[in-house]
Amino acid sequence: MPPPDSTILYQARLLGSAQVRYANPKLKVDALQDIIAITEITDSAVPVDWAAAEELAITANQLEKNPVAAEFASCPPAAGDAKNYAAWAKDFATWIQNRRRLTLLRSPSLGQFSKPGEEERDFRIRLQQIAREARDDAAEKLRAKYAPKMATLQERLRRAEAAKQREIDQAKRAKMDSVISFGSTLLGAFLGRRTVSLGTVSKAGTAMRSAGRAMGQAGDVGRAEETVAAVQQQLEDLESQFEAEVEKTAKTEHLLIETLETIELSPTRANIDVRLVALVWLPFSRTAAGGTHPAY
Predict the structure, then answer these.
(1) What is the pTM (predicted TM-score) of this model?
(2) For residues 219 and 223, what is the distance between their CA atoms, to the nearest angstrom?
C-alpha cells in the first residue's frame, strides 16, 4: 500500500441517505428524489446538527467501503456510540420534512409540472413538445369528426356536377334541335313557295316548341350551376371551420414566454425512507496556514 498523501487529512462526517416521495393528488404530482447529505459530528452537547448539513451529488453506491492509506483526524466520541445513530436517523428525517422542500414549475396553460432538478429552459422545451403532440392528437380527432361531413358534401358535389353536365349536354342537344328545326322551316319558306302551307305552319310550330325546350334546358343548366356553387360553398365553409379549430390547437410559441407558477411541496413523514445513516471519512486538503478545505 502506497504511503499516505501528507497534504490530505481525512475527517469524520455523518452521512444520511434517503429516498423522498413528494406526492400531491390534487396537483397530480408524484415524484421520487434521492437525497444524500453530510454534517459534522462535534464534541458539543448536541453533536449533530442537520440544519448545517451539506447535500452531495453522489449516490450511496459511490462510497468506498474499504479503508485507504491516509491520515485520519481524531473521531468525536459520539460517533463511536452505536445508539446515537438511530436518533440521528430520526433527526435526519425531521430535517428533510421541515427543510427539504421540492420546488417545481407549473405551466398554467397546460397544467404540466417540471421534473425534480429540471431546468426552466428544459421544461419549456418539453412543454412545447407536449403541446405539439397534443395538437397532433387534437387535429387527428378533428379530422375524424369532420371526415363524414366532408365526405357527404364531396359526394353531393360530385352528383351536382354530374347533374350539371347532364343539363349542359341536354341543353346543347335541345339548342341543336331548335337550330335544325328553324333551319328546315326557313329553308322550306325560301325554296320558292309563295304561299304558307299547313305543313309550313306545323313546322314553324315545332320549331317554336324546340326553341322553348332549349330555353327551358338553359334554365335547368343555370339551376344546376347554382346547386353546384351552393354545395361548393358549404364544403369551403366546412373546411374553413375545420382549419379554424385546428389553428386554435396549433399555437405553442406562448410557451416560451408564459409566466410559470412556482409550487413548493413538503414530504410527509411516511414518505421519507431513510436508508442509511453512517460514519464516513472525507478528504480535506491542508492549507499553508494550517487549516483545511474540502477535497471531495
Answers:
(1) 0.57
(2) 6
